[in-house]
Design a protein that fits this description.
- The chain has a twelve-stranded mixed beta sheet, sandwiched between helices. Strands 2-1-3-4-5 form a five-stranded parallel beta sheet, with helices on both faces. It has a five-stranded parallel beta sheet with strand order 7-8-9-6-10, sandwiched between helices.
- It has eight domains: 168 residues, Rossmann fold (3-Layer(aba) Sandwich); 151 residues, 3-Layer(aba) Sandwich (Rossmann fold); 64 residues; 84 residues, Arc Repressor Mutant, subunit A (Orthogonal Bundle); 64 residues, no CATH class; 141 residues, Leucine-rich repeat, LRR (right-handed beta-alpha superhelix); 79 residues, no CATH class; 200 residues, no CATH class.
- Helices cover 38% and strands 17% of the residues.
- It is extended, with a radius of gyration of 41 Å.
- By secondary structure, the protein is α/β, with parallel strands linked by helices.
- Helix 23 links the parallel strand 13 and strand 14.
- Keywords: Leucine-rich repeat, NAD, Plant defense, Repeat.
- It holds the Pfam family NB-ARC.
């Protein structure tokens, strides 16, 4: 990448133009003519007059290429037949990348596409040359260079009538370029990777032709914002007659306005007030095509003074703003924001090497040290340039010394640039948040840190947001706070500097192990210390006296990992807000350790057996983490922790009891009991937690039941209980309004995928329920049953067969989303069964009647009619009786369901379902039918009847159904069955009244004829 603070001048060009050509093709005519024309315009042009150029570029020629501002590459038919020309081209393209040299190709009697692809006669001659040269090492470099140069816009000689016309065009363009370059903004000597990054913004600008465009470049100090803005300005400035580049940080508001007006109007304008300046800019520039770059904006008032409401920006104008504060760009509502990213390792090493060694490669003896410096800079161009320049021409011993010094003392030049962002923070609270994070909270969860710093009175919600907007911190994966190492070092340097003393005991924060050990051993701590962190190795046996903290009365942040403390804990500060003490060595927290103001307690890997002997009242405690405490036997009583939001007890293998007072925690959001292998029960009170969002029980191998009371957890969004002894899914989970993710009993995934599978398995325990789970798996990759690979259905079948002893279940769908889940499940099942039945040919048909309610006479008549129809009909569409009012109304459906509207003004006595199926010796409807689901779309509920109920519906069953059906309700009845049964049709008959003499019309003659055709097919064996 690059840096705006590099030498602000172009490389010392010795020549204006370098000519690259193949002499035997072009020397006598075109090249000589071109060279003469360039010379006549006093354009300094380097031309190699030697006919026999040998095989290797000399140092003089390499310097000539590097010292030329423009390279003209004349690509003729034989150009690629010369190793000399090819090596020249490789060097030229390297200079274009490294030094920003302009390359202009001339395709002399050759097609540009043939050069790009090395095809046609040009490609044939290139291949013929390769047969004789055998330089396979250079082959890829040559091909790449030819491809890249052919991608550059140049001139095709075939488009000009004469060479003279072509020469005139080239010379005019070169002259214009050189004259314009006098107006170029100076950028870095080594624009490594600059063009690639700038191109994204240039593409956006060019893609918005005719519109006014406002763009922002955002990033931390030293990341190259100014340089990329200058590069873009130089690249597109020739398209704008009116243009201006303004450095905002060095000017007042009126000065900014006068500078802009002077640049675009080319005359001095006196502005007497900001309002007057806004009005003049809007009046003079409205409708004009203008390029404006405002660099290093630090406050919104600067932008408001220049652009007002931005409504005048139009007509193809382009405004580019660079800033460290993205909030300013949001306020201006820019069209595009480019975020400056850190350089990758290869780019960093190349840029550093150019500054340190004057070439793109490192010196072999300093290669390892160079990589260490690059790692320290972590992709920041400013640091790479400053340190590379400083180390140039120095001995290896000096390099080693500088690296050792950087570990403790950051480079002054780099820190000065970075500190601008810190000094620009508007208040001391934001500065305190930054310093706390750079010493204690890098890599910690943002929400966790926010809670703690809010408890310190720092208003961290807005403070952390401001730091992110100003590129001082960033949010990385899993919502963790991150910070560039150089910014971290800058912050820590500020702490040392602000105390104006070399005594660590008087610093506001202590983080460096040697300094902390010195303070604790010599008991030199003072009230100035607000935070202290000492992280010793797990095997440490160092022990300190508690009275060493006696004078640290302002201590609010304390981290003591694997530190042993003896003596009276009353010496510890009463202002503590964060206690992180991994490896806490005592069996319980002493009663005189005052934690009344603490927000978060982190005692992972502790030796605790109890948290404390007597219950404590910690009014403000929000986070309690006792994970990996191998000896912890029970939780504390929770009544004294009213603010607790997160309880984390992961991997506490001795934990036997969760105190029943956990039900008193009205603010609890998270319980994590993962791998608490001795815990066998949960207190019933836990289900009273209406605020709980996440419950994790995975690895609790002795927990064998989750109560139906789970539904009382009305905020529960995530339930994870893998590898437990739970054999029963609480059916109440289906009614949960909030549940979003489940991992339980082999069901893993978002609830809208898992719940339909649970419903299916519950109502159809004899079916291969995993086949349906597998179907959902194809729709959502997150649904992966634990036992899918083993195909172990026994546990699941047993689970759902024992789920409920009720004959039926009525589910009221409280939300539309749950009802949609059922619909999705039924639709998928429907398509799956339809697909399955389409595999079979017609065979002998059978029917099975399911009667619900008191309608014996109608049922007998209906049954007789169906039997007669089966004897004479080929198709179920023909033999199923239709409406026979006033006794019944008929509704036919497909292989899975049938729908109807409940009639008005008619008293139903019952419902009869007719299932028509293909008979086989192996399967009968009696054995294969599993359940009926009656879905009332109007009332948004569904009723499930399991197989045992289907055999003998009683009056109670009918009353439960009819009480749930109202006039004009839209209803659909689904019948589920195992795959062995091939169902062709389902019909429903709504039974209305009794009659002794119900007659059905005889089958028409055409039905008899169809039956005869059906018999013929059987004779011809036209079936499965």
């Amino acid at each position: 990448m690059w840096s705006s603070s590099s030498s602000e001048s172009n490389p010392g060009w010795k020549h204006d133009v370098f000519l690259s050509f193949r002499g035997e093709d072009t020397r006598r005519s075109f090249v000589s003519h071109l060279y003469a024309a360039l010379s006549n315009k006093e354009i300094k042009t380097f031309i190699d007059d030697r006919l026999d150029k040998g095989t290797k570029l000399g140092a003089e020629l390499v310097l000539a290429i590097q010292g030329s501002q423009i390279s003209l590459v004349i690509l003729s038919l034989n150009y690629a037949s010369s190793r000399w020309c090819l090596d020249e081209l490789v060097e030229i393209m390297e200079c274009r990348e490294t030094y920003g040299q302009e390359v202009l190709p001339i395709f002399y009697e050759v097609d540009p596409s043939c050069v790009r692809k090395q095809t046609g006669e040009f490609g044939n001659r290139f291949q013929a040359f390769l047969q004789t040269d055998h330089n396979w090492f250079g082959y890829d470099g040559w091909r790449y260079a030819l491809k890249e140069v052919a991608n550059i816009t140049g001139w095709d000689s075939r488009n000009f009538r004469t060479d003279a016309e072509l020469v005139e065009t080239i010379v005019d363009h070169v002259l214009k370029t050189l004259i314009m370059d006098m107006d170029l903004l100076p950028i870095t000597d080594f624009p490594v990777g600059l063009e690639v990054r700038a191109q994204e913004m240039i593409d956006f600008i060019e893609g918005q032709s005719g519109k006014g465009r406002v763009l922002g470049i955002w990033g931390m100090g030293g990341s190259g914002k100014t340089t990329i803005a200058k590069f873009i300005y130089n690249r597109i400035r020739d398209k704008f007659k009116q243009r201006s580049f303004i450095e905002a940080s060095t000017r007042g508001h009126i000065d900014l306005q006068e500078k802009l007006l002077y640049d675009v109007l080319k005359t001095k304008v006196n502005v007497h007030s900001i309002a007057m300046g806004i009005s003049m800019i809007e009046k003079r520039l409205r409708g004009e095509k203008t390029l404006i770059v405002v660099d290093d904006v630090t406050e919104f008032e600067q932008l408001k003074a220049l652009f007002g409401n931005c409504k005048w920006i139009g007509g193809g104008s382009v405004v580019i703003i660079t800033t460290r504060d993205i909030h300013l760009l949001k306020l201006l509502k820019v069209d595009f924001v480019y975020k400056m990213e850190e350089m990758d390792e290869n780019e960093s090493l190349k840029l550093f090497s150019l500054h340190a060694f004057g070439e793109a490669e490192t010196r072999e003896d300093l290669n390892e040290l160079a990589r260490k410096v690059v790692a320290y800079c972590r992709g920041l161009p400013l640091a790479l340039e400053v340190l590379g320049s400083y180390l140039r021409d120095r001995t290896k011993k000096v390099w080693e010394s500088v690296l050792l010094r950087l570990e403790k003392i950051p480079d002054d030049q780099v820190q000065k640039k970075l500190r601008i962002s810190f000094d620009g923070l508007s208040n001391s609270l934001e500065k305190d948040i930054f310093l706390d994070i750079c010493c204690f909270f890098i890599g910690k969860n943002r929400a966790y840190v926010t809670e703690i710093l809010n408890g310190c009175g720092l208003y961290a919600d807005i403070g952390i947001t401001v730091l992110i907007e100003r590129s001082l911190i960033n949010v990385e994966k899993n919502n963790k706070l991150g910070m560039h190492p150089l910014l971290r070092d800058m912050g820590r340097d500020i702490i040392c500097e602000s105390s104006r003393t070399t005594e660590p005991g008087k610093w506001s924060r202590l983080w460096f192990e040697e300094d902390v050990l010195d303070v604790l051993k010599r008991n030199t701590g003072t009230e100035a210390i607000q935070g202290l962190s000492l992280k010793l190795p797990f095997t440490s046996r160092d022990c300190f006296e508690a009275n060493a903290f006696g004078e640290m009365k302002g201590l609010r942040l304390l981290q003591l990992d694997h530190v042993q403390l003896s003596g009276n804990y009353e010496y510890l500060s009463k202002k503590l807000r964060w206690v992180c003490w991994q490896g806490f060595h005592l069996k319980f927290i002493p009663n005189n350790f005052d934690l009344k103001g603490v927000i978060a307690i982190d005692l992972k890997y502790s030796n605790l057996r109890l948290l404390w002997k007597k219950p404590q009242v910690l009014q403000w405690l929000k986070i309690l983490n006792l994970s990996h405490s191998k000896c912890l036997r029970e939780t504390p009583a929770f009544s004294g922790l009213p603010s607790l939001e997160k309880l984390i007890l992961k991997d506490c293998p001795s934990l036997l009891k969760v105190h029943q007072s956990i039900g008193d925690l009205q603010n609890l959001l998270l319980i994590n009991l993962k791998d608490c292998t001795s815990l066998s029960t949960l207190p019933r009170e836990i289900y009273k937690l209406k605020s709980l969002k996440t419950l994790i029980l995975s690895g609790c191998v002795k927990i064998d039941i989750l109560e139906e009371d789970l539904v009382q957890m009305e905020s529960l969004m995530t339930l994870i209980a893998e590898n437990t002894a739970v054999k029963q899914v609480p059916f109440s989970i289906v009614r949960s309004k909030s549940i979003g993710y489940i991992s339980l009993c082999g069901y893993v995934g978002p609830s809208h995928n898992v719940i339909p599978s649970i419903i299916w398995s519950w109502m159809s325990p004899r079916m291969n329920c995993l086949s349906h789970i597998h179907y959902f798996h194809g729709t959502s990759s997150s649904l992966v049953p634990v036992d899918m690979q083993n195909n172990d259905l026994g546990d699941l079948a047993q689970l759902f067969s024992n789920l409920s002893n009720q004959r039926s279940v009525l589910m009221q769908c409280d939300t539309e989303s749950l009802f949609e889940q059922l619909g999705k499940f039924l639709d998928i099942t429907k398509s799956e069964i339809t697909s399955y039945t389409s595999q079979f040919f017609k065979h002998s048909l059978e029917s099975y009647l399911i009667s619900i309610g008191s309608c014996a006479q109608q049922l007998n008549t209906l049954s007789k009619s169906i039997s007669e129809g089966l004897a004479t009909s080929e198709s179920c569409d023909e033999f199923l009786p239709g409406d026979h009012r006033p006794y019944w109304s008929a509704h036919a459906g497909d292989a899975l369901s049938v729908n109807f509207t409940v009639p008005e003004n008619c008293c139903m006595k019952g419902i009869t379902l007719c299932v028509v199926y293909l008979s086989t010796p192996e399967n009968t409807a009696t054995e294969c039918l599993n359940s009926i689901i009656i879905v009332n779309y109007t009332k948004c509920n569904f009723q499930i009847f399991k197989r045992d109920t289907l055999i003998s519906f009683n009056d109670v069953d009918w009353q439960s159904i009819i009480s749930n059906l109202g006039p004009r309700d839209k209803v659909e009845i689904f019948v589920t069955y195992s795959h062995g049964l091939v169902v062709k049709k389902i019909a429903v008959y709504l039974m209305y009244g009794e009659s002794i003499n119900m007659e059905i019309e005889p089958l028409p003659e055409r039905k008899k004829n169809s039956f005869i055709r059906f018999l013929k097919k059987i004779v011809m064996c036209d079936f499965w």
